[in-house]
Structure formats: structure tokens, C-alpha cells
Design a protein that fits this description.
Blueprint: H1 3-16, E1 21-26, H2 37-42, E2 50-54, E3 60-64, H3 70-76, E4 81-84, H4 88-99, E5 106-109, H5 116-125, E6 130-131, H6 133-139, H7 145-168, H8 175-188, E7 193-201, E8 220-229, E9 232-233, E10 236-242, H9 247-266, H10 273-285, E11 328-331, E12 335-337, E13 341-343, E14 347-352, E15 355-358, E16 367-369
Parallel strand pairs: 1-5, 3-4, 5-6, 10-16
Antiparallel strand pairs: 1-2, 2-3, 7-8, 8-9, 8-10, 11-14, 12-13, 14-15
Length: 371
């Protein structure tokens, strides 16, 4: 599937729902779990707030802020008519008043994720608009060929970043210093963004953003490395010990790896995300960790990868989404164990006709730094 196939699918749904206009909205805040209807419909990753207007015949108009970013938007989206503005909501509503008849049916996607002051302004101006998130994001439940290629490149950058982490991690440096170095390094490799969680402790309770805490021997370093390439994220989850890991830690980490591999093996077309989660849990439950497979210790075993669409959603027991080829998501058992603390282990996978294919060249294994 390519971008034009996806856009055609959205336009078909618009006709089925008898929508004369579909409006996609985004506030410019790019986050790993925040869907972006503007990016799905236009392919454009904005610097600030943005909106897109789509007609059932495929004609589109893109509104971007700040106003000076219109030139880049026009280059990225040569088919769309582009408007630059410093107030997307007002410009959008002006265009709708000018170009849409009062009797036309309008659908809106992305409204619920906007800051309240913007959402209220648009909702009050379009009181009869229908929520159209399902139209947009159902069409984006599978990735385009270009998005999958970008995810592969992002996964390669993530692995390079992880190798850089192994090379430079030393006792005495702060978590913040290490995180800054990794972000800069991955930017130099072509990452346009990076969601990075990095922390260390002899017994971690969870993974969290870096702080000024200085690394020391005996720490278990957790790294959730998530660069994006041309707006498509990929993520790897890794665990590194400062010093030689004790045998118990090696054994417990292998248990988490086994759980991850069970999840990867269970992810085949036609099964559900729920079944993938259950396969991961079963490995841990068999070793007596059933209590730790439920909240507050764990809520999910993976998630979709944006920035455009986060479908097929979480690898969770309550997600009955049926897996299809070209879906892209994370499988990460990331698990708290009372003997070792929280451990990170996870791979980005793309669904193929035969099952889940990890995008990484080498799957997670426990690493350590002794120098």
C-alpha cells in the first residue's frame, strides 16, 4: 500500500458516510502515543498546529503554522493547496465558511487531542460536525510501504544508538549526559525526532526519563530508544549492567527474553493483540510471576508506533484488534521482577503474511559494561 491508496480508502469511507468535507486537526505536539490525523491525511509532519481539509474527490487544503513553514509544506505536499498562518483555528474556520455550504456534512478527526481552548473554539463553530477519527485511523491501521521503509531505517538508527550507549557508558557520568549524547548521535544519523527514556539504579521500579543522577557500578541501566525517520517511529528496549551481572539477573533476563519471543511467535495474521499479550504472560505465569503480569506492575506488552497512526494499539488483554500484514508495533514484555527490579526487553515488528518480523538486526540480550 502507498499513500495514495490510503487516501483513496479515506475518500471511499467519506462517501459511504455521506461526508462532504473531512477536517483533520493536530496541535503540533508530537508524542509517541498521540495520533496525528493531519499526518495521516497529508503526509506532512508540522512544526506547529496544523489542519487539513479533504474532499471526497481527493482535493485537499493544508493549513500550517507558523506561517513561514508554508513553503516547506508546499514542497512536501505538492498536490495540496497550502496556507500559512499564525492562527490555524481562525484560518481553518475562515476557509470552511468560504468554501463549504451550510448544508454540507462535515467530519472532524483529532479534535479530542487538541488543547481545550482550541477544541472548544472549533467545536462551537462546527456544532453539527461528526467525529471522523475512525475513518482516518482505520485506514491507517496498516503502514504504507514508505512508512515501513522509514521504520526499518529508524530501527537501524536505534540499534546504532544502543551500540553508542555501550561504547560510552561509564560510572561517574550522569543519566542526562548519556541521554544528551545519544540524542545528538542519533540526530547525526538522520533521526528527525527521538523519544528517549533512560534511567539507572540497582533496583529499578520502572523506566523513566533521565535525571542528573550519576551512574555507578552495580546499576542496571534501562534504555527505551525511539527515534523517528520522516515522521515514522521505531523503538528498541534494552537493559545494560554496569559491572558483571550476577547469575540470577542473567537468568531472570533470559526469562523476559523468552516471554518476548513467545509474543513474537504468537503474532500471526488473524490472531488478536490480546492473544499476543496472553502468550507473553503465560511464560512469566509459568514461573510464578502471575501477580506481576497485572496492574500496578504491568498494563500492556507493547504498543503501536506513530507519529501518524498508533493503530493497531496496545499489546494488551483487552485489545481484540485482529492482526493484518503491514501492521507495525512494539512487542516488549518490560517486566518488574521482585528479585531484580524492572527489566527492559523489546523489538519493533512488522506483520508479514507469515507472522511478526523484527526490524532489528539483533534482538535484545542482557549487556554489561566492565571498563
Amino acid at each position: 500500500m502507498n499513500f495514495h491508496d490510503r487516501l483513496a480508502a479515506i475518500c471511499r469511507r467519506m462517501k459511504e458516510q455521506k461526508l462532504d468535507l473531512l477536517v483533520g486537526l493536530h496541535d503540533g505536539g508530537h508524542f509517541i502515543e498521540k495520533p496525528n490525523s493531519v499526518m495521516v491525511i497529508s503526509g506532512f509532519k508540522s512544526l506547529g498546529a496544523a489542519a487539513v481539509m479533504l474532499r471526497p474527490d481527493g482535493e485537499s487544503r493544508l493549513v500550517v503554522a507558523p506561517s513561514w513553514d508554508a513553503e516547506r509544506a508546499a514542497e512536501c505536499c505538492p498536490v495540496a493547496r497550502v496556507s500559512g498562518t499564525d492562527n490555524v483555528a481562525e484560518e481553518l474556520l475562515t476557509l470552511i465558511r468560504r468554501e463549504a455550504l451550510p448544508t454540507q456534512s462535515i467530519g472532524v478527526a483529532g479534535l479530542r487531542a487538541l488543547p481545550s481552548q482550541i477544541a472548544v473554539r472549533i467545536a462551537s463553530a462546527l456544532p453539527d460536525a461528526q467525529f471522523a477519527d475512525a475513518i482516518v485511523f482505520d485506514a491507517a491501521r496498516t503502514k504504507t510501504d514508505e512508512e515501513i521503509a522509514n521504520a526499518r531505517e529508524a530501527a537501524h538508527i536505534a540499534e546504532r544508538g544502543y551500540q553508542r550507549l555501550i561504547e560510552i557508558t561509564r560510572p561517574g557520568m550522569s543519566e542526562d549526559e548519556l541521554a544528551s549524547e545519544l540524542k545528538l548521535f542519533m540526530k547525526s544519523l538522520g533521526a528527525d525526532d527521538n523519544f528517549l527514556m533512560l534511567c539507572a539504579n540497582p533496583h529499578n521500579r520502572a523506566v523513566q526519563p533521565s535525571t542528573g543522577r550519576r551512574l555507578q557500578y552495580g546499576d542496571i541501566l534501562l534504555a527505551e530508544i525511539t527515534p523517528s525517520v520522516r515522521g515514522q517511529l521505531a523503538q528498541i528496549c534494552r537493559t545494560v549492567v554496569l559491572g558483571l551481572p550476577p547469575n540470577e539477573l542473567r537468568h531472570k533476563y533470559q526469562l523476559v527474553v523468552d516471554a518476548m519471543n513467545a509474543g513474537i511467535a504468537a503474532a500471526v495474521p488473524g490472531t488478536t493483540m490480546s492473544a499476543v499479550c496472553a502468550a507473553i504472560n503465560a511464560v512469566l505465569e509459568a514461573q510464578g510471576y502471575g501477580e506481576y503480569c497485572r496492574p500496578p506492575h504491568i498494563r500492556r506488552r507493547g504498543h503501536g508506533l506513530g507519529f501518524g497512526s498508533v493503530r493497531p494499539g496496545d499489546v494488551a488483554l483487552d485489545n481484540m484488534t485482529v492482526l493484518e500484514p503491514d501492521m507495525l508495533f512494539m512487542i516488549h514484555p518490560n517486566q518488574y521482577l521482585p528479585e531484580t527490579g524492572y527489566l527492559l526487553c523489546g523489538e519493533p515488528v512488522v506483520m508479514t503474511a507469515n507472522g511478526a518480523e523484527p526490524l532489528t538486526a539483533k534482538k535484545a540480550s542482557l549487556a554489561w559494561v566492565t571498563a
